[in-house]
Amino acid sequence: MTQTKQRNGADAKAEKRERLIRSTMKCIANQGMSSVTMASVTQDAGVSMGLANLHFKSKEGLLNETLAYVHDQYVSGLERIASKQQNSPADHLLEQVKWDFSSKVANRELLAVWFAFWGEAKSRPTYRQVCSERDSLMTDRVQQLCQQLIDEGDYPGYDAEDIAIGLCCLIEGLWLDMLIAPQKVSRERAHRVAVNYLATNFPKHISRASK
Question: In b/e form, how buried is each residue of 134-161, taking b as 16+ CB within 10 angstroms?
Fold first, then answer.
């Protein structure tokens, strides 16, 4: 009975913590980073200021945990894809692009949060470290897969790092377009553009996406 109560208590604590993080993301997306306060977050989450302070100590602690949460959610998707050992390098690349433009990654709230943190990264080393880590992981995985395709397909003169940097810059640019011009760039269109970039570089492995 005691263990059950402890588990239930831990679950309730984790649920409230995640609720505060989700409310922080909502407030950042709606108000901008500089306008977010502990009061606005707790009001949206429907919890007391005391509970928020218990979990995060300060607004800065809450923001750091929110960035870590966003980072971990993205990386967990990459890890799930990498764990599928039966997939070919081309399949892995296509699945990663699919993940990058899924509703769990490329929704307006999450994109607004990510770019808000990147905007603050220049003056905040903690933010810069997490944002750079995610970008490096993304690029490194793409580069490894591109190198495998180059080796398999005998693409002379190809540089895996160049192609990987190009794809990651394209993805981030499409994310930004989706945030500021959603009527022009949908998730479906952005996904198609990225797949066609890969098809142009690796025609022996990847087919162009149709509308």
Answer: beeebbebbbebbbbbbeeeebeebebe
